[in-house]
Amino acid sequence: MSSNLHPMLNVAIKAARAAGAIINRAALDVEAVRISQKQINDFVTEVDHAAEQAIIETLLTAYPGHGILAEESGSEHGSKHSEYVWIIDPLDGTTNFIHGFPVYCVSIALAVRGKVEQAVVYDPSRNDLFTATRGRGAFLNERRIRVSKRTRLGECLISTGFPFRPGDNFKQYLNMMAEVMPRTAGLRRPGAAALDLAYVAAGYTDGFFESGLSIWDVAAGGLLVTEAGGLVGNFTGEADYMEQRECLAGAPRIYGQLVTLLGKYSKFASAGDKAAVRQAAEVTEVAGVADDEAAAQSPDDATPTAPDSAAEDTQTRPTAAP
């Protein structure tokens, strides 16, 4: 830990590394990890619980009067009325982890009177430590990081997350992807939102968008992005995004271009924009049905009919001599 860092950030780093050690040990034999399912495609493991417990113990040992908001245990630990609240995701990217796909992280943020002041995102598989203190910049392994300098969307790499829970609007997400993919150099889906945001802060990707996120997915990563010179908000560009379940981040010029493309898909979009999206979806659906019907009636797919027997007889039988 560095003596130059804010004391509370130092404690958060200690907690993140403790959780990372638990995750790395479990990753050596991931098939032995016990897994349960919170809902369809939403998993939790004994590693999530053990990592979260290690984080909470470390934080409350140092600051017993602070509050806790954690993904697995909610607000059952810590002070319920403190102005200092630690927001914790002990293992963001659990589905990746249980498959041995090494894209996951620990995310810890400290909110003071509702505003995030400290942030740590730790990638234990690479030993990458992303940190930020409000007003002091963002860092990767103690090296200052900045968002990408690209200004043309066509040159940019954008990350996202796909809908996977029951009730998610998958068709709308396909439409959002159709807006973004042809206009960029590539679209990626790594599978850990906190790490996606850290990568925007480091300039590895130029932007990020995803819906359905919780506060522990975005609290730490959002501060990393803003301290690295980027912008974070909801799809319409409003800054009060943390509990709105949609997040858009990027370098300033790219952020603006993504808002233009995706703002109409926000649940906070204007009535006119929402109507336009619905109308476009209906037109697309009608066109799809018409294409299906046309394909079904295509002569290429028609079953050959048997020749008319009478005509065949007339053509093949010799006529009687007069």
UniProtKB/TrEMBL annotation:
Keywords: Hydrolase, Magnesium, Metal-binding. It catalyses: a myo-inositol phosphate + H2O = myo-inositol + phosphate. Residues 312-322 have a biased composition (Polar residues). InterPro entries: IMPase, Inositol_monoP_metal-BS, Inositol_monophosphatase-like, Inositol_monophosphatase_CS, Inositol_monophosphatase_SuhB. Residues 288-322 are annotated as: Disordered. Its cofactor is Mg(2+). Its EC number is 3.1.3.25. One of its GO terms (molecular function) is inositol monophosphate 1-phosphatase activity. Residues 288-309 have a biased composition (Low complexity). GO terms for biological process: inositol metabolic process; phosphatidylinositol phosphate biosynthetic process; signal transduction. Mg(2+) binds at E71, D89, L91, D92, D217. The keyword Manganese does not apply. It is an enzyme of class 3 (hydrolase). Belongs to the inositol monophosphatase superfamily. This is Inositol-1-monophosphatase.
